[in-house]
């Protein structure tokens, strides 16, 4: 199989958590840690509003010495932006990550979130991409 044409449905990370938009950043940190995740979907009810990553927390809270217990995730979340489908391939993901200056992109199937793809996922496949 040619790794460059692998579908995202085959390689995406499907371990996804979510958190309500009004929850504290402190609660998000706990959720990320408890579940061993790198990203949480930020929702308002059942509507996807954004994403929050460990990188987001580091950049917008830790590096600015802000109190995560006094901040809602909605104040620091990243916008969702363009999403990919499980049928898109790894090169589509790499291009969107690069052009959108993102660390993670959401992957959808049947209009529902199916997983995420990140630079880390692509780097993990690097040996196969260079064959």
Search tags:
single chain; 131 residues; alpha/beta; CBS-domain; 3-stranded mixed β-sheet; 6 helices; globular
Question: How many β-strand stretches?
Answer: 6
CA gyration radius, whole angstroms: 15 Å
Number of helices: 6
Structural class: alpha/beta
**CATH architecture group name:** Roll
- The CATH C-level name is Alpha Beta
Report mean pLDDT, rounded to a whole number.
91
What is the molecular shape? globular
Strand order of the largest sheet: 1-2-3
What is the name of the CATH superfamily?
CBS-domain
Strand content: 15-25%
Tell me about the largest β-sheet: 3 strands, mixed
What's the SSE pattern?
HEHEEHEHEEHH
Please give the domain count: 1
Q: What does this protein structure show overall?
A:
- This protein has 131 residues and is an alpha/beta fold.
- The protein has a single domain (3-129), classed as CBS-domain, CATH 3.10.580.10.
- It contains 6 helices and 6 strands.
- The chain has helices at residues 8-11, 25-35, 54-62, 90-99, 119-124, 126-129; strands spanning 17-20, 39-44, 47-53, 84-85, 104-109, 112-118.
- A 3-stranded mixed β-sheet has the order 1-2-3. A 3-stranded mixed β-sheet has the order 4-5-6.
- Strand 5 and strand 6 (112-118) form a beta hairpin.
Brief write-up:
The chain is α/β, with parallel strands linked by helices and 131 residues long. It is built from 6 helices and 6 strands. The relative contact order is 0.22.
